[in-house]
Amino acid sequence: MSTHSEHSAVTVLGLGPMGRALAGAFLDAGLRTTVWNRTPGRDGELIERGAVSARSVEEAVAAGELTVVCVVNYDASDAILRRDGVTDALRGRTVVNLSADTPDRARDTSDWAAGHGIRYLDGAIMTPINTIGAPSAVFIYSGPAELYEEHRPVLDTLGGTHTHLSEQIGRAAAYDIALLDIFWTAMAGYAHALAVARAEGISARELAPFAQGIGAILPPLFQETAEQVDRGTFSGEDNPLTSGASTMSHIVHTSESHGIDAGVMRAAEGMARRAIGLGHGTDGFIRVAEMLGRSGK
Ligand code: NDP
User: Fold this and answer.
1) Closest ligand 1 atom to the C-alpha of 18?
2) Superfamily the domain 203-295 falls into
3) Residue 235: pLDDT band by 50, 70, 90 thresholds?
4) Does residue 26 contact residue 155 with C-beta atoms inside 8 Å?
């Protein structure tokens, strides 16, 4: 059982843009916030706002019961945490790792923590730094539910929505991977669209309002097609794969006529044509999810 004082202190390891935003939100909530970063000098503004600057990781984690790690990936968090002095200082304490990486790395870190008597929760942040401390922030966690409940009062001060997904430690990273898959392919599509539009004399600013219109089509489509995927039905009544593949080939041709690489769209068209070849031409594009799933292990 934790005491009030444990719930009023937190350590943040990693002061990149996200780590600084997290530490800032903890300070805004009035928590005693101790910070550390590999490269010194990133904590100036936080110290002005009342943060305690630790001289070493050992000193930082010894300052309280809860340590939040937010660095570029798990190679970085391993480099910080998996050292004898730090491991000793963490024994009996809790680490919440909000760095992004793969489910396998989360499982491996959980095994390491268990082997050293360290309490471990994995997590991911699904929104940009300007949401931290605001209602639109989204955090997901996996690992022991009682550990999550114990530290919820501190984690909640980061604002937004916090969801404990599962006791299975890899689950938050698995959601993160799936959601970042959407984000990065969408951003790759947008960057490519801007290049093609520019080659046709259309500025990014001119395209942007129409691009937002395309973006707005997606949320209801995500919900509708998720239901189709779970049901195993892929209605293409309104927009069959054959029609979609045709418009994709127009994008490929227009891009390449301007000498612009069309690799991403070629890959998308290739998936659509493979599904058509398997006899799914009258289905909707989301049939591709089922097809790709079949080729997985
Ligand atoms: P980065 O992903 O660039 O991470 C920078 C931090 O990682 C710095 O503290 C840096 O230390 C540290 N770091 C890198 N390599 C090492 C290492 N080998 N040893 C120790 N520390 C290391 O920036 P962010 O702060 O933005 O992101 C942190 C995490 O948050 C990432 O996993 C990211 O995916 C996630 N995230 C970020 C979002 C954003 O909008 N920025 C949104 C959602 C999630 P140093 O200063 O010494 O280089």
Assistant:
1) 25
2) N-(1-d-carboxylethyl)-l-norvaline Dehydrogenase; domain 2 (1.10.1040.10)
3) confident
4) no
